[in-house]
């Protein structure tokens, strides 16, 4: 993927999935490359201050070309940061890749945060190495190629190749 990916996830329950992504990236035997927007700068000890955190997250997202959302059992209930990050991604017009940790392909209406359901700027994929590689390499350019009208449509994209 060219450009940085901003990864959104439930830090209490789904950090393992984020760690796997970074492990795949670090493993020289696995072909998985992405620039992690969270590595672009470091937060200081002021990271307990919500305004400071959101300011840093906004800066990181502004340097990103796509957002990856790791959707687990509790993600849709998180409003302080996850919902705010998704609102910001939509406001910035960034393509969003929703990776279902339960490995379902397509929009999972039970787990997907409502704010990113039925949006043309979102592709819903299973959380697998191959699906992430494909979506991160292809969906941002696909989305940028859509017309303004197509971007405004109510749609839910998935990759048929990952249907079970």
Describe this structure in words.
By secondary structure, the chain is α/β, with parallel strands linked by helices. It has a single domain, classed as Rossmann fold (3-Layer(aba) Sandwich). The chain is 37% helix and 16% strand. The chain contains 5 helices and 6 strands, in the order E-H-E-H-E-H-E-E-H-H-E. Strands 2-1-3-4-5-6 form a 6-stranded parallel β-sheet, sandwiched between helices. Helix 1 links the parallel strand 1 and strand 2. The mean pLDDT is 86.
For the record, the CATH architecture stands as 3-Layer(aba) Sandwich
Mean model confidence by pLDDT: 86
What's the alpha carbon Rg, rounded to whole Å? 15 Å
Structural class: alpha/beta
| Total strands | 6
Instruction: Estimate the helix proportion, in percent.
Output: 25-40%
**Widest sheet, order of strands:** 2-1-3-4-5-6
Terminal Cα span: 25 Å
The largest pleated sheet is described as: 6 strands, parallel
- The geometry reads as globular
- Can you identify the CATH class? Alpha Beta
Question: Would you identify the regions where 5 or more consecutive residues have pLDDT less than 50?
Answer: none
Helix/strand order, N-terminal first: EHEHEHEEHHE
Give the DSSP E fraction (strand runs of 2 or more residues): 15-25%
Can you tell me the number of structural domains?
A: 1
Number of helices: 5
Reported by name, the CATH topology is: Rossmann fold
